[in-house]
Amino acid sequence: MPRLPLLFALLLLGGVSTVHAEGYIARLLDKPVPGGVAVVDLGAGAQAPRAKYQGKPVLVVHEEDKRWLAIVGIPLSVKPGPQRLEVEGAAGARTFQVGAKHYKEQRITLKNTRQVNPLPEDLKRIERELAEQTRAYRSFSAGTPSNLALDKPVNGPLSSPFGLRRFFNGEERNPHSGLDFAVPAGTPIKSPAAGKVILIGNYFFNGNTVFVDHGQGFISMFCHMSKIDVTLGQSLPRGGVVGRVGATGRATGPHMHWNVSLNDARVDPAIFIGAFKP
Q1: Rounded distance, CA 15 to CA 7, Å?
Q2: Residue 76 pLDDT more than 80?
Q3: pLDDT digits 0-9 by tens, 125-149
Q4: How many CB atoms are located within 10 Å of the residue 221 CB?
Q5: Scanning 28, 148, 178, 277, which has the fewest C-beta atoms within 10 Å of its C-beta?
Q6: How far is 177 from 19, CA to CA, in rounded Å?
Q7: φ, ψ for residue 29, nearest 5 deg
Q8: How far apart (Å, rounded) are the C-alpha atoms in residues 113 and 92?
Q9: Quick check: 224 and 184 in contact, CB under 8 A?
């Protein structure tokens, strides 16, 4: 997808209805399904309203016509039906509707059975690592993301989509929380928007991993990397190299795994690159 300068991207946040925007960004991002995104109109005003969904702060952006939009991440666990967005001040609460979406199954065979049924010592490590990554996903920094229509971190075909129900050696585990690209080992991984590196680690399941904060709870996570090319706290420009594709952690071969999180909800990265499939 071609890059959109920030000003142009915000200009494309066109007209709105009572709840959902109708401009370019809404047409790209408003996919209100479990694991999707809702674009909610918060009305006009001189200052940004503060919004929360399920008790967590939400990304809010300003339109060219002085209206505000909430970009809400919807967890995979949410059931179809009405959802409530809490908004401080005169804007008041908003509701939006979540539709249904069916996710396919994926069955994977792993030779390393510890990555299916970890040993007790592995479980202690996994618990510690999960807490560390959860804190990163819940980061909420000030500032508007440089772009909401994201660049692909690598150029290559999509492989495993987001939301797959995954079975490892016949046993069901957590759904696929990101998007995979089939690219060779060593391929440079580029940040899809400007951001700050907020976590680096080598994890039991994810292997070599980097979290990049794009602003206001808009987080990218890249894992299974063969090499990390950034340092903790480093500021990255849009297109800055994060690391190299690999197969570390629980992986059957080299590929690029990319998570996108909004308000601590893992959502389908395909939405942000114009590749979402209903």
Answers
A1: 16
A2: yes
A3: 999 999 999 999 999 999 999 999 9
A4: 23
A5: 277
A6: 27
A7: -100, -25
A8: 51
A9: no
Which one has a higher pLDDT value, 243 or 48?
Answer: 243
Cβ–Cβ < 8 Å for 30, 20:
yes
Residue 39 near residue 21 (C-beta atoms within 8 A):
yes
CA atoms of 239 and 214, how far apart (whole Å): 12
* Amino acid in position 254: P
By C-alpha distance, which of 252, 199, 194 is closest to 222?
A: 199
pLDDT at 105 over 80: no
Question: What's the whole-model pTM score?
Answer: 0.86
What band does 6 get if pLDDT is binned at 50, 70 and 90? very low
pLDDT band at 246 (very low <50, low <70, confident <90, very high): very high
Instruction: Name the token pair of 226.
Output: 């063969």
Q: Is the per-residue pLDDT at 173 higher than 60?
A: no
Tens-digit pLDDT profile for residues 187-201: 999 999 999 999 999
Q: Which two tokens stand for residue 238?
A: 């849009």
pLDDT at 107 over 80: no
